Amino acid sequence: MNRVDGESISRLLRAWRSRVDARTVPELRGLYPRPGRRLSQAHVARMTGVSEGWYRALEAGRRQDFSESFLLRVAQALRLSEAETLTLFLAVCGRRPPGLLAPDPTDLPRGVQALLEQQVSYPAYLSDVAWNVVAVNPLMGEWFPWVLRPGANLMRWTLLDPEAREQMLDWEDSCARIYLAMLRVAANSDPANAELRTLVRDILEADADCRRIWSEESDVVEHRDGHVFRLRLPYHGNAEIRVTTHVLLPIQRPDLRFVFITPMDGWAGV
């Protein structure tokens, strides 16, 4: 935390602490002398299991090796909202709190759902951090019927389904290497995510080509926005087409990817 950030989070922490009535805190009952209305730094330290000096360093904005579990306990002790917890984490350690964004992936904000439904010109879909398909527009289901199957997952279909190797031309260089490079980034950016670890393990165990590419390559790719694919789909009579993918992150649900697919070269056969 630099000086400005430290002063800012210090002021916020003091304000958040001052609004908690110590008399309503179960962990402080039975203390002698009995706490008054004001929640003190010593009280918060007791509630979070650290020394008063350690908590005082946080509130003073001094840089320390504050753990995520400690910051989560502070958020609970001060009864912070999700936005306040996010602010605390960003100010102190520059990252989002673990598990803050864990809503039901199918519970879409109205605006995101409307944007997907109103995209009628091109295929579009939503996927989560592990590339599970959460929702699609009708055209996506017509182009790629596999997305309508229960448990549809982009990585599993692209890398493991024989159908993908027929429909995605130049599969190894244009598709497999890109998708495996994306998995490499995801697995390292969130090592605690068991679903991502399982996804990588299942793909590498199931396919020799993926194992070979994984061992040969060290490339990393964060996303495939703007990537060009050559496709041959039954929907288009198996004629070859070139498309571009566009990847957006909905501000209301940054745990989701909003992806839509547009034709290249002015082709209007959709």
Describe the structure.
There is one protein chain. The chain has 270 residues and is α+β, with helices and mostly antiparallel strands. The protein has two domains: 3-93, 434 Repressor (Amino-terminal Domain) (Orthogonal Bundle), CATH 1.10.260.40; 110-263, Beta-Lactamase, CATH 3.30.450.180. It has twelve helices and five strands. The protein has helices at 3-18, 41-48, 52-59, 68-77, 82-93, 110-118, 138-143, 154-160, 162-167, 171-189, 194-206, 208-216, and strands spanning 124-127, 133-136, 228-232, 240-248, 257-263. The protein has a five-stranded antiparallel sheet. A hairpin with a 5-residue loop joins strand 1 (124-127) and strand 2. Helix 1 (3-18) packs antiparallel against helix 5 (82-93) and helix 2 crosses helix 3. The radius of gyration is 24 Å and the shape is elongated. The termini are far apart. The model is unreliable at 1-6 (pLDDT under 50).
